[in-house]
Target: Fas apoptotic inhibitory molecule 1
Amino acid sequence: MARAADRDAEQERSRYSHLEKMTDLVAVWEVALSDGVHKIEFEHGTTSGKRVVYVDGKEEIRREWMFKLVGKETFTVGATKTKAAINIDAVSGFAYEYTLEINGKSLKKHMENRLKTTNTWILNLDGTDYRVVLEKDTMDVWCNGQKMETAGEFVEDGTETHFTVADHSCCIKAVSSGKRKEGIIHTLIVNNREIPEAVE
Model:
């Protein structure tokens, strides 16, 4: 019985082992991309000069004994290798400000841009959660980090993009709103049921 408890405790420790090492954790961001929502963590040792970047719990950059405490760390995020950078700026004395850029834009601008260029839906099929993302500029469809095979067709009132998720027929309908400011309205239909759009 004691062995099972020891094994359970060891598994629990190993799941969070990277957090135990993060004694200089100064910033955590969540970034929504087409292939998923990614967690970026940054350690900055202001006495040792250490800089460590983790993406989804995996160490991407480690620099020890950096004498220059300000600067920039660049790396990529996700399956699409999206460019990211953490800017380290001195605010006053020994206080620092950390800002995240995605594709050269502040995180705020990146999120505002995503609202215009993508649609996201969250749905549950057969007890499994799925995150479906439409990139409006390319009409690429992503589901849980995978780019989907799609078939597009023109229909009387717009276009339909067909694909399958877990043996369920899915269709993204694109129709004109009739209003210039609103543009095209994209609707996800799964099993003849409209799925409400998610806000990330």
